[in-house]
Design goal:
Structural class: alpha+beta
Helix content: 25-40%
Radius of gyration: 23 Å
Order of helices and strands: HHEHEEEHEEHH
Strand content: 15-25%
Strand order of the largest sheet: 1-2
Number of strands: 6
Shape: elongated
Length: 164
């Protein structure tokens, strides 16, 4: 291992994150000095990459600077007493093949889909007689077209053709 690698190991040993140290420690409480691959960042993409590497038999270490892992897949208490999935709107980008390959349902993944699933407030001032506009979308195509028509009747009509 290069001198820079030993410096990284020393830096990681002094990391203030005890959860990480416990997760990466060997039987003697020390970090293993050899890995075939190192993934920097334990966000959802880093964890998926590490899982695929591990499945291939690659000895992989994952390092994260935050106190939680999961990136956009994390639920956190942003407002005291209220937990939020910070980026649940990204769920639509989760490739079904990843769920299958990594057997995520077997490991406890449960998807709770919402309807409506998208709300976009407009950055405009309301008036006494009218609230600021917003766009609310769900699985009801007619309701979606009505929402879209407040911005563009032409675009709302496109949904009728492409939705058939």
């Amino acid at each position: 291992m290069a001198a820079g690698g030993r410096g990284l190991i020393r830096a990681l040993h002094s990391s203030p994150c005890p959860t990480w140290k416990r997760a990466q420690s060997g039987a003697n409480g020390r970090l293993k000095p050899e890995y075939d691959a190192v993934v920097i960042g334990a966000g959802h993409n880093g964890l998926v990459a590490a899982a695929y590497l591990q499945r291939l038999g690659v000895n992989t270490a994952v390092f994260e600077r935050r106190h939680v892992i999961g990136g956009a897949a994390v639920t956190e208490e942003i407002i005291p007493g209220f937990k939020f999935s910070r980026a649940s709107y990204l769920l639509s980008l989760l490739r079904p093949q990843i769920c299958t390959d990594l057997e995520l349902k077997k490991h406890g993944l449960k998807l709770h889909l919402r309807d409506p699933y998208s709300f976009t407030p407009m950055l405009e001032e309301g008036t006494l007689n009218r609230l600021p506009r917003s766009l609310l979308l769900g699985t009801d195509m007619a309701a979606n077209q009505k929402e879209i028509s407040q911005f563009s009747r032409k675009d709302a009509q496109v949904g009728k053709v492409s939705g058939d």
